Structure formats: structure tokens, C-alpha cells
Amino acid sequence: MTTPTAELNEDFSEPGATAVPWADAERVLAAAEMFFLSTVRADGRPHVTPLPAIWDRGRLHICTGDREQKAKNLARRPECVLSTGSSRLHGGLDVVVEGVALRVTGPERLRALAALWKARLDWDFEVGEGAFRDPAGRTGLVYGIRPAKVLAFGKGPYTQTRYRFG
């Protein structure tokens, strides 16, 4: 992944503020354990749910049960948004990632991601046929979301930075 171009939106930033460097936004993505995933239901209604995600190789990776609403939504419409950050008003950095969720099914990549889930979140997954299996034998579909657009919202000073890729 190439380093994106950072652009400060002065309309939504404090006077004199500067764009948040990509390294700062990427640090938030790598350190965060929980994100909010936004998808769209078949009837157009939004669906938002908290879930862990792993930042690796320029993508956010998520796992969801094959029968869960988010899996149904992503199968029909893979465009989604993941967000993470601080619940504080006057500090921290919130990051929003817009992209397309693509299934990860290769056994080598799934094994590498399962190792990351264990190391970072202490979750045990085995690799089955194109998916994770948890200790109870349930199927976990794995998706990688490559950022199409990322926004970072600083809260001390208040800033809005957009990152352009490619």
C-alpha cells in the first residue's frame, strides 16, 4: 500500500490546524481492537454493529459468522464503513474507513490472519475451507476491506483530514 495524500478540510478544522499525518491515522487503525461496521440491509436500512478488526497489509480484516446479518449484507452489497476512535470530546483521533469488503479465502492468508487474531485478540480460530472455524465448529467468514477513502477527525485541535489513495 502506498502512502496516501493527506488533505486538511479547513471548513471543518480549527484555524491554523494542519492535516493529521497518515502515520498517526494508521497507528490508530493498528492499535484499535474494536470498530463499528456499517452495512446496508436488502431493504436499504442501515445496519451497524461493533466488532474487532485487524489492520494488516493496508487493509482492515473482519470476521463474521456466515449466518449473521452483516455477512448477508456484505454478500449482497460489499460497500461498507468501519470506524474507531475515542469516546472523548476533547482528545484523541477518530478514524473512518470507507471501502469494499472482499472475502479472504486463501488458506495461507487465513492462517496468517488466524495467528494475528490469536496474538492481538486472544481468539482461537482454525482454518477450514475458505473460512475460519471457532472452537465450537462455527464458520467465520473473513473479509479484507481495502480503504477507498479514510477520514481522520482530530479533537485537540479539531481537524478533519481526508486521505486519498492512488
Question: Care to give the gist of this entry?
Answer:
The protein has helices spanning 22-31, 69-76, 107-121; strands at residues 5-8, 34-40, 46-52, 54-56, 59-65, 79-84, 93-103, 126-127, 132-133, 139-155, 158-164.
Evaluate the radius of gyration: 17 Å
How many separate domains make up the residues? 1
Strand share of the residues? 35-45%
User: How would you state the average pLDDT, rounded?
Assistant: 95
CATH overall fold name: Pnp Oxidase, Chain A
Shape annotation: globular
Let me know the largest β-sheet.
11 strands, antiparallel
Q: Architecture, CATH level 2?
A: Roll
Distance between the termini: 9 Å
Tell how many strands the DSSP assignment holds.
Answer: 11
For the record, the CATH class is Mainly Beta
GO molecular function: coenzyme F420 binding; oxidoreductase activity, acting on the CH-CH group of donors
Domain Pyridoxamine 5'-phosphate oxidase N-terminal: 26-123
Keywords: Oxidoreductase
Organism: Actinoplanes nipponensis
Overview of the molecule:
- It comes from Actinoplanes nipponensis.
- InterPro entries: F420H2_bilvrd_red/Heme_oxyg, Pyridox_Oxase_N, Split_barrel_FMN-bd.
- It is a single chain.
- The protein has helices at residues 22-31, 69-76, 107-121; strands spanning 5-8, 34-40, 46-52, 54-56, 59-65, 79-84, 93-103, 126-127, 132-133, 139-155, 158-164.
- It has 166 residues and is an alpha+beta fold.
- The chain has a single domain, classed as Pnp Oxidase, Chain A, CATH 2.30.110.10.
- A hairpin with an 8-residue loop joins strand 6 (79-84) and strand 7 (93-103).
